[in-house]
């Protein structure tokens, strides 16, 4: 079974749409309920309490976030959830109506490599509208939005029994079975010219 894992990951990548490219040019907006600090010298921002980061279609929610800007202008975000309130992530895809959603105890986001690392009880889903088309879960998930590849790690913080990884690939939507479709044609109507026969 383990030998099939690379094939399954390739299947996930093959049916993927790329992350919405317009997000890269949008401003990154940070909000929180509690205290925050901005260190201009070290290019570091810390926020606590229902933190929300948005950038175009990207939405990240966490209890605590530590954001650092590199010297060349890239962002590295480290997000932590709280008990019963994990970190959540959502981003639209270039194909309209499709998105990626993820949840984990912790999250690391790097705009230089365009990677997201979900750590602890991690689950990611590819959505088409409100329908799940693919789902992966494990102790750690690394998602590369450039190549659309998921890398999974097993471990005791996996949401699955015995710490195993799990991949679910839904079958593609099939057209309705013609045999079950209603018959076409005009509905039957009573005759206006025939009279019922009489019994002899």
Automatic annotation (TrEMBL):
Question: What's the superkingdom here?
Answer: Bacteria
Signal sequence segment: 1-19
Pfam families, per database record: LptD_N
Q: Where is the composition biased (Low complexity)?
A: 176-190
Would the keyword Protein transport be found if you checked this record's keyword annotation? no
Describe its assembly: Component of the lipopolysaccharide transport and assembly complex.
Q: What does this protein do?
A: Involved in the assembly of lipopolysaccharide (LPS). Required for the translocation of LPS from the inner membrane to the outer membrane.
Q: Tell me the protein family, please.
A: Belongs to the LptA family.
Q: What is this protein called?
A: Lipopolysaccharide export system protein LptA
Query: Can you name the source organism?
Result: Pelomonas lactea
